[in-house]
Amino acid sequence: MKVLTINTEECTGCKLCELACSFVKAGSFNPLNSAIKIYYFDKNLEFVPLVCTQCRDAYCVKVCPTGSLYRNPETGVVEYNKALCIMCKQCMMACPWGSIKPNLTSDAMIKCDHCGGDPECVKYCPQGALLYVEVEDAVYFKQRETATKYLRGE
């Protein structure tokens, strides 16, 4: 199973990932229609991309009254079926990360689905801060990031 992992050390806050995502999800270059959001933390002077974490026990799936959000049994990714959605926004309220939001240009919700296994945000990240890797490899990247922060005294 592949996961989207983020190396915050490499993110420069260019927001190309947001633009690529919004174009795929909504057909426009509008970061408000992106499933990934870049946050800037003044205290640490760092940019942190935030995207759906594909929760193991996904609240969005549990609260969806129509089944428009479901876990793909092959990929493990929580996917969205617009045809079943009634725009009740219960998924948006249930998401602990704020990773589901309404599309501003159509009657649909926006949620990361890894672009069917070929995430646009990863392709357009010039720094390589976003990676789409096997879950086993993601553990390595997280360990390396933690060790680097520890060595820097952060």
Any key phrases for this structure?
154 residues; alpha+beta; Alpha-Beta Plaits; two-stranded antiparallel sheet; 19% strand
- Uncertain residue segments: none
Give helix and strand order, one letter per element, not per position. Answer: EHEEHEEHEEHEH
The domain tally reads 1
The strand count comes to 8
- The number of helical elements comes to 5
**Class inferred from helices and paired strands:** alpha+beta
Task: Measure the end-to-end span.
Answer: 31 Å
CATH class: Alpha Beta
CATH topology: Alpha-Beta Plaits
Radius of gyration, rounded? 16 Å
Strand percentage lies at 15-25%
Q: What level of helicity do the residues show?
A: 25-40%
The mean pLDDT is 90
The CATH architecture is 2-Layer Sandwich
Shape: globular
Strand order of the largest sheet: 1-8
Biggest β-sheet strands, sense, barrel:
2 strands, antiparallel
What does this structure look like?
With 154 residues, this protein is an alpha+beta fold. It has one domain: Alpha-Beta Plaits. The strands form 4 sheets. Strands 1-8 form a two-stranded antiparallel ribbon. It is globular, with a radius of gyration of 16 Å.
